[in-house]
């Protein structure tokens, strides 16, 4: 069999990591002999990136087969342009490749290019959390899936923001070459873990860090590092030099959570990751610091309501 060809469509002001992350996955996989050929096409020979590094690409598309993949990385887009990010010929290329049985993918705002090509209608898709409302309104016949890393629907694979392109590419290597191949590539790239598509875009550590309380941040640093340990409120208060009452008041005002609830969220999030990768509920509960699985089951039940 000939190698799988992966073609990246470069759009002006693309984010380097949107491109470099998945490109690194496929080129590393090829270094290991898994059979990928990577190429880059654009509507002009030189593309300006959001980070200021110019890139060069081919103007002519390579010949593609049904086993091949076309990927559209995202670009800097606090607001999406009312104009298509790619011209009519490239939009036709995307649509025709999928219609012929091939796969197409996007990272972040790259989903907008797939939408303009008519590939989102009637399908589930995701994108960066800052763009979900805008793209949901722009493509009402598509089904937006919020706060996940990637979604696959009928050979249209869309991923969230920037670094999630690595997760998407590792998933495609796992599907095409096996989980062992994906794990080998992830290890070579020093990726902490290959995440499942339905994991949340923002970790609990990030979701509750958008405040300006130095004391709350210092307490969170302790809990983040030792979330699996017993952390009595007395010990936390002692570490930051305030009373338990003051700690609880300031922490709750800053994060919307008590220290215990924040610790439980971290434990729950890590346990869900372990369970998603085949660990039993009982083993996951012990790993993240619960004495048994009953509390974990209760917390999972509350989260699903």
Automatic annotation (TrEMBL):
Residues 217-305 form the HTH araC/xylS-type domain. InterPro entries: Class_I_gatase-like (IPR029062), DJ-1/PfpI (IPR002818), Homeodomain-like_sf (IPR009057), HTH_AraC (IPR018060), INH-QAR (IPR052158). GO terms for molecular function: DNA-binding transcription factor activity; sequence-specific DNA binding. Keywords: Transcription, Transcription regulation. The keyword Heme does not apply. The keyword Nucleotidyltransferase does not apply. Pfam families: DJ-1_PfpI (PF01965), HTH_18 (PF12833). This is Helix-turn-helix domain-containing protein. It comes from Kribbella sindirgiensis.
